[in-house]
Design brief:
By secondary structure, the protein is α/β, with parallel strands linked by helices. It is built from 18 helices and 17 strands.
Length: 489
């Protein structure tokens, strides 16, 4: 077992943003605390494919991501795009939080370059959508030099921007006008599972058409009206509409595993790409999610430049781990507590309105909020999980956020990371620590949790391969023989 234990992996660096504290104030990372180690995911799950990024030399690996994107894109028939046309490359904010953000930026650059190379079209714009943090993609565009790369034609979009009616088979829905103000649109996305507690790995590839590219009236069907599982059909309706189909050129996705970027997949058939994305999400992320479901008790540490539920460990977000007491991929299981909360199925006393709603993951004994951003309603977490926030400045910042006015009402401020961890150990009675800090290729954890996970991994892998994966794919109508075509084994 000792052979599987490594020194902690360098976490994702804090980033300057209006949604988080000054990176200079992040004095100590949780992975620097005594007793922390790392596990490499490919060592405990040997069937995971090799990654392009990260690697031993990430500067070269980033170039390899760009090359993989170019190679994939050159296989696409772009003959309908003419030199005099306009093209909008559509991006979503979540892509910029994958493995430091640069891989997604390289995909966007490659799309622009190959379209110009193959078609002669030069009027290519970047349109990057967001959720609740309306200025977030503007920060990413500047951070990764995309404003310069796109010759000043890169903009962020918010769901409150001017809309455009789209006639669909279920009636009029609304997209963002800036998405569709070109001759052609190119859908640039990724296969990481992200909000699988919402979409349950159904139509993940199509979802941005009802979210990042949609006006708030239509986007809100996911959270305020129908709920994610029911609202999935709105994204399909928009994408399948005559208007959108008349503009859709193709899609290009980063193929993402829980351990890194494993390739780029481009296709003019979005539903074929969606099937492949579903397979990757179920097979590889399913093993991590099932392994996390085995954890019996732990301290959770948030230490990543994203809003509270979107911080990463082993490619999985905290919003998934608080639901890991259910099988998020099994369509026969009830939606987890956190999903029901966002759909207003909790009453004013914070109790589930239906007996069938599972509770929050009881394995989470306490949360140490060392570093995470505001911009997403997160008081639900501090109400249900004892939470320690490191530093008065971070606490004060959350008090300024209209989405988090009550977050600190239920959390306590602790002056330092060391003090927070000491308190957490004493109060929780466990020394198992799971760190959501975006460590690439693996995860940072305490030694005791590492030993627990290493012991559980082989049986989890076998269970997913032989029992769970066939069931998950059958529920979604995806042919398991796609494994052979993907050549991932």
């Amino acid at each position: 077992m000792e052979n599987f234990l490594h020194a902690p992996i360098r976490p994702i660096e804090p980033k300057t943003s209006q949604y988080g504290i000054d990176p200079k104030l992040v004095k100590t990372r949780i992975s620097e605390m005594p007793g922390m180690v790392s596990i490499k995911l490919k060592e405990i799950f040997p069937d995971l494919p090799d990654t392009i990024f990260p690697s031993e030399n990430n500067e070269e690996a980033i170039k390899d991501v760009y090359k993989a994107a170019v190679d994939s894109l050159r296989q696409i028939d772009m003959s309908k795009i003419k030199p005099e046309h306009t093209v909008n490359i559509l991006a979503s904010h979540h892509g910029f939080t994958l493995y430091g953000g640069q891989p997604y930026a390289e995909l966007l650059k490659a799309i622009k370059d190959v379209v110009t190379e193959k078609t002669g079209c030069t009027n290519i714009r970047l349109r990057a959508g967001v959720g609740m943090r309306f200025r977030e993609t503007e920060e990413y565009i500047k951070r990764y030099g995309l404003d310069t790369y796109f010759n000043g034609k890169a903009i962020g979009m918010a769901p409150v921007d001017e809309g455009i009616p789209i006639e669909t088979e279920i009636g009029t829905l609304y997209g963002l006008k800036k998405v569709y103000d070109a001759t052609w649109i190119i859908h640039a996305h990724h296969t990481d599972v992200r909000e699988v507690h919402f979409h349950r790995q159904v139509d993940k590839a199509v979802k941005p058409f009802g979210m990042s590219y949609a006006r708030i009236e239509t986007r809100s069907t996911y959270h305020q009206n129908l709920g994610p599982r029911a609202a999935n059909f709105t994204a399909r309706a928009i994408f399948d509409s005559e208007f959108v189909q008349s503009k859709f050129a193709f899609a290009s996705f980063l193929n993402v595993g829980p351990h890194g970027i494993i390739g780029v997949d481009s296709d003019a058939d979005l539903y074929a790409l969606n099937d492949r994305a579903t397979f990757l999400g179920c097979q590889y992320y399913g093993k991590i999610m099932t392994l996390f479901g085995e954890i019996d008790e732990c301290i959770v540490a948030l230490d990543f430049p994203c809003p509270v539920p979107y911080v990463f460990s082993a490619g999985v977000i905290y919003g998934n781990f608080v639901s890991a007491n259910t099988d998020l991929y099994d369509m026969e299981t009830p939606l987890p507590a956190y999903t029901w909360y966002t759909e207003a199925f909790y009453n004013k006393h914070e109790k589930p309105m239906l007996d069938s709603i599972p509770p929050m993951n009881p394995a989470v004994k306490i949360c140490v909020h060392n570093y995470a951003w505001l911009g997403y309603p997160s008081a639900f977490f501090s109400r249900h999980i004892p939470t320690l926030v490191v530093g008065q400045t971070q606490s004060d910042l959350f008090d300024t956020d209209p989405l988090n006015q009550d977050y600190m009402t239920y959390a306590s401020v602790v002056k330092s990371t060391e003090a927070a961890m000491n308190f957490a150990y004493n109060a929780s009675g466990t020394d198992k620590v799971l760190i959501f800090d975006g460590a690439m290729a693996g995860m940072n954890v305490s030694k005791s949790l590492a030993e627990f996970l290493i012991e559980k991994a082989p049986q989890v892998s076998e269970k997913v391969d032989k029992i769970l994966l066939p069931k998950w794919l059958k529920q979604r109508g995806v042919d398991i023989s796609i494994l052979e075509r993907l050549k991932l084994k």
